[in-house]
Amino acid sequence: MSVNNQGCWFCETTDADDSYEVFLKKDESKSVVNVPSCSTCKSKHKKAIIGFLIIFFVVSLCGAGLHVAVLFLSNAELSGPGSAIGAALALLWCVPALILAFGWVSYCSKGIKPQRHTIKYPELMEKLNDGYLMVKPD
Ligand SMILES: [Zn+2]
Question: What band does 81 get if pLDDT is binned at 50, 70 and 90?
C-alpha cells in the first residue's frame, strides 16, 4: 500500500511515511482506510498512550494506597458502612489521575491532532456515515 505524496493527517506539515490502518465492515463487505501519518506523530501518539496509562495507574493506585494507609492509621471505623465509604473515597483518586493523564496526552499532542482524531479523517468519516463499523483486524 502506498501512502506517498500524502500529507500527515495529524500535523499537516510533514509528508506521511506511515499510516494507521482502520478496518471496517458493513454486512459482508470489508474495507480498510489508511489514515496517513508521519513517524514523528506516530511516536508522539505512542508516547502519549504509554504515559497516559502509567500516570493513570500510578496516581490512582498511589492515591488509593495512601488513602487506605491513612484510614488504617487513623482511628476511623473500618468495619460496616465505614469501610465501604473509605473504599469509595479511595476510588475517587481515579479523577485526578484521569485529569493528569489527559493533561499528559494534550502535552504530548501539542501542535498535532491526538490519535483519537483518526476517526475524523474524511475518508473514514464517509465510510462510518455510510454504515460501516470499525472492527478488529482479522
Ligand atoms: Zn505528522
Answer: low
Going from the Cα of 32 to the center of ligand 1, the distance in angstroms, rounded, reads: 20
CA angle 61, 114, 45 (to 5 degrees): 65
Ligand 1 centroid, distance to 101 Cα (angstroms): 22
Distance 7 CA to ligand 1 centre (A): 8
Contacts of 17 (CB under 8 A, 6+ apart): 3, 38, 39
In what side-by-side order are the strands of the sheet with 133-135? 29-37, 18-26, 133-135
Residue 50 CA from chain centroid, whole number: 9
Rounded to the nearest angstrom, the distance between the alpha carbon of 81 and the centre of ligand 1 is 52
Instruction: Specify the pairing of strand 133-135 against strand 29-37.
Output: unpaired
Span 93-137, pLDDT tens digits: 899 999 999 999 999 999 999 999 999 999 999 999 999 999 998
Question: 114 C-alpha to center of ligand 1: Å?
Answer: 11
Total-model pTM: 0.77
